[in-house]
Design brief:
With about 240 residues, the chain is an alpha/beta fold. It contains nine helices and eight strands. The longest helix is centred in the N-terminal third of the chain and has 21 residues.
């Protein structure tokens, strides 16, 4: 994990700067800043540093790894309602995070949705989920292809124990901003089209799109949940 180089004051300053960017981007798009949900992505960040972000007013956190979540969970100043799971999730890890997260954003197959349904029902709860879309069609990334989204939505909506609440994507890294804009626009259109469909077991409210390098742009193109890690906690060593 990363070393704790930053103080509480460092995190407070970063949170303030990010919130200013969120506000400016929302206003530039004619949107209300309070519509935008800011998530702190905590991969490899020690619990003590993550707690600084909580103290600075961040109320939503994103975890990428089931094992890391379980290791840090008891040391967090906040609990399940404030945590989303945003990383690739194997079906055999689902049971580890049920009860520790309020939403799983990275659902990209019926098989995974079925396992979440099974584990959630066994725990006597319903789990909010987002369907992850591979908007760039990249073989190296998870997510359902755009053309397959409607089918997955229909199948997932039939499951008990899960509620489809939104879409999530990680677009390709682009050299030109106009290319990134195109992916964001495509994703927003998918979100709007999907939102207008009748979902038996959910309410499509959230478009989770935009990270540290492009969250301002994502907000201007329709995102209402941005996932910010590096801009808040700095660059990290992601070696396993």
């Amino acid at each position: 994990m990363m070393e704790n180089h930053w103080s509480r004051e460092d995190i407070e300053r970063r949170v303030c700067e990010i919130r200013q960017t969120v506000e400016q981007s929302a206003l530039a798009a004619g949107r209300r800043p309070e519509e935008i949900h800011l998530m702190a992505v905590t991969k490899t960040v020690p619990a003590a540093v993550v707690n600084y972000a909580w103290e600075a007013g961040i109320t939503l956190f994103g975890e990428n790894r089931a094992q890391e979540l379980t290791e840090k969970y008891e040391d967090y100043a906040f609990k399940a309602p404030n945590i989303h799971f945003i990383g690739t999730l194997q079906t055999n890890k689902v049971r580890q995070i049920i009860g520790k997260v309020s939403c799983i954003e990275s659902v990209d197959s019926l098989h995974l949705a079925q396992e979440i349904s099974k584990r959630a029902l066994a725990a006597g709860q319903a789990m909010d989920i987002f369907l992850e879309v591979n908007i760039g069609g990249e073989a190296s990334k998870g997510g359902v292809l755009p053309g397959e989204l409607e089918r997955l939505l229909e199948q997932t909506a039939l499951l008990l124990g899960v509620r489809v609440r939104g879409l999530m994507c990680i677009p390709p890294v682009c050299e030109k901003e106009e290319e990134t804009r195109r992916y964001f626009d495509q994703m927003y259109k998918l979100f709007v089209d999907t939102k207008h469909k009748k979902i038996d077991n959910g309410n499509m409210e959230y478009l989770s799109m935009g990270m540290s390098a492009d969250y301002g742009l994502a907000i201007r193109h329709g995102s209402n949940l941005v996932r910010v890690g590096t801009a808040l906690f700095g660059k990290r060593n992601y070696q396993n």
